[in-house]
Amino acid sequence: MSVNVFDGVWDEGGDDPRASRERVLGGLLGAARWGATVYELLPGRTLWPYHWHVGEEEWLLVLAGTPTLRTPDGERVLRPWDVAVFVRGPDGAHQVRNDAGEAVLLVMLSSISDPEISVYPDSGKIGASGGWSWGDDVRVRLRNRPEANLDYYDGEP
User: Fold this and answer.
1) What are the tens digits of pLDDT across the range 95-107?
2) Where are the alpha helices (H) located in the chain, listed in sequence order?
3) Which of 32, 35, 53, 94 is disulfide-compatible with 26, CB 3.0–4.6 A?
4) Residue 99: predicted pLDDT
């Protein structure tokens, strides 16, 4: 199975502060263990809060434009055909912004971890999700801060 990154139906981002448009390729290709999404990022927009994953590894490939990549090593401007990898754990923390005057087009590839935990260092949040499948939203999603955790026996008889 194959698809062309530029052909087909795009999902419009609308007022979402992240991508202007995106195209999820993993489901179209029938992938089971890897995901791929093409994002169009307009000037002034940011993809995701700064975060890292416990289970997933991600790769970024810039197709067009000059996005700004934030990692634990600092910030740098990428250019077309640059590739970056975000390993599991704090060393793989990342965020992509478009500080330039033109749209950015990029592909994010990722292993699929179900369940998955994401950590957001700037806000102190932790997210957990599970029960994921193509074409369906995540069945279980939780975001919280460690200080708001419930006791193990909270609400139990």
Assistant:
1) 999 999 999 999 9
2) 26-29
3) 35
4) 96
